[in-house]
Design brief:
disordered C terminus, globular, single chain, 3-stranded antiparallel beta sheet, alpha/beta
């Protein structure tokens, strides 16, 4: 199939080697020049800001990042919660707890259970949820995702999705049901590492995944989120690719809000260990550099990161955070636990096969397995109070669906 021109074409021709060389060997004098610029920064400037030479200037970067963020976004932080619909997946991804070959407890919520989870999140104050699921044909073949969006839209004004890539027509159906945002992480922008990490399943198609935000934009999504999973490849190379992708989307998908995420690998089923490190200080440097390059992009920080680090990073450029998160389906209410099955190397094991004894031997718990372990366990109320104490306003919902142009024309 011949694909239309997209970021893939640009991606294949970018001067990665020279950018990465700059990100590793920039002189200190160049950092001062970049920080003194009044005009918009370039990707070459960004390479300088993530270089080792920029580490001594981190305090200056942080001040500039904080000032720019407050100028563009004020003192507000949007809160959201991930709602996991299913941990069933046909992909084999070495780093993911949902990977097909991991012998974990699996469940897919039905619509009554989706509603229970949504009601629990609404009761905690959330008006913005991100629906998450592994990649499985049954999610797109029978209207499951469309029904889930519609179920949640009766409870939650803002519903976004983080699911396996789809074609434009499938996204249009989701938008018609009320979905307004799509998040897709490339995981790693290193083609070689990507091929090593994704050995089975549709996720092996690097280009199809890389083009996903553009298909989602064409289908009508008003929020687009991208990110890289830090720990799979050299963090500076990943950061350069992610920044380039964000710049492209800001130019070509300008009617949508663009957000970027910078998640680091966390412990999960399968016990995959990060291949590359990104220290707390380097992550801080990266957040500041991203804000200085991308003044109008949202920056998302999840509960993957620890409580002290999150509190420190929020004033430096972050605009959106999760709180009280669960990364397993049914995590907020225990929904779906009576229908759990188990898989081992892609084969479903029923309870009659002794799966319950197998689970008991492994961890002594019941319930579906999560995608990864979280690090910040504060409740939504605690997180909101912490934001107020450091001078920020927690925002649970920042727009009204009834005011959207499409809604106004039809309702």
């Amino acid at each position: 199939m011949v694909r239309p021109v997209s970021f893939v074409s640009q991606f294949n021709s970018l001067p990665w080697a020279s950018w990465l060389a700059a990100a590793r060997s920039t002189a200190c004098a160049d950092i001062d020049r970049v920080l003194a610029k009044s005009e918009p920064l370039t990707i070459e400037d960004f390479a300088a800001l993530i270089s080792p030479a920029a580490e001594p200037a981190l305090e200056s970067m942080a001040r500039g990042s904080q000032t720019l963020t407050r100028r563009r976004f004020g003192r507000v932080i949007r809160l959201f919660a991930p709602l996991y619909l299913s941990n069933e997946c046909v992909n084999n991804c070495q780093y993911c707890g949902f990977s097909r070959d991991n012998p974990i407890r699996r469940v897919t919520l039905d619509q009554s259970e989706v509603r229970r989870e949504g009601e629990a999140l609404a009761a905690q104050g959330f008006r913005n949820v991100l629906l998450v699921a592994g990649e499985h044909p049954k999610f797109v073949s029978n209207g499951y995702l469309e029904d889930s969006v519609q179920t949640l839209r009766e409870l939650i004004p803002s519903v976004s999705l983080e699911v396996g890539p789809m074609d434009r027509e499938a996204y249009e159906r989701l938008v018609a049901r009320g979905a307004e945002g799509l998040v897709v992480y490339q995981e790693t922008y290193d083609r070689t590492v990507y091929a090593e990490m994704h050995t089975v399943g549709p996720k092996r198609d690097f280009d199809w995944r890389l083009e996903t935000p553009e298909r989602a934009y064409a289908a009508g999504f008003r929020r687009l989120g991208i990110g890289a999973l830090f720990g799979l490849s050299d963090w500076r190379g990943e950061a350069l690719a992610l920044a380039s992708h964000a710049l492209y989307l800001l130019r070509h998908c300008w009617k949508a809000q663009i957000t970027i995420s910078l998640p680091r690998l966390r412990p999960c089923a399968g016990e995959f260990q990060p291949r590359f490190s990104l220290s707390d200080r380097e992550l801080t440097q990266l957040v500041c550099a991203m804000r200085l390059l991308l003044p109008d992009a949202g920056i998302v920080l999840s509960t993957r990161e620890s409580e002290p680090l999150r509190d420190g990073l929020i004033p430096l450029g972050v605009t959106m955070i999760s709180a009280g998160s669960h990364t397993e389906p049914g995590g907020y209410t225990g929904a779906g636990q009576n229908r759990i099955h188990y898989t081992q190397r892609g084969r479903i094991i029923s309870l009659a096969d002794g799966a319950s004894e197998w689970a008991e031997r492994n961890d002594g718990t019941s319930g579906a397995t999560g995608q990864f372990d979280i690090a910040d366990h504060r409740s939504p109320a605690e997180m909101a109070e912490r934001l107020r104490r450091i001078g920020y306003e927690p925002v649970w919902k920042d727009w009204e669906w009834a005011l959207a142009p499409s809604a106004t024309a039809t309702e």
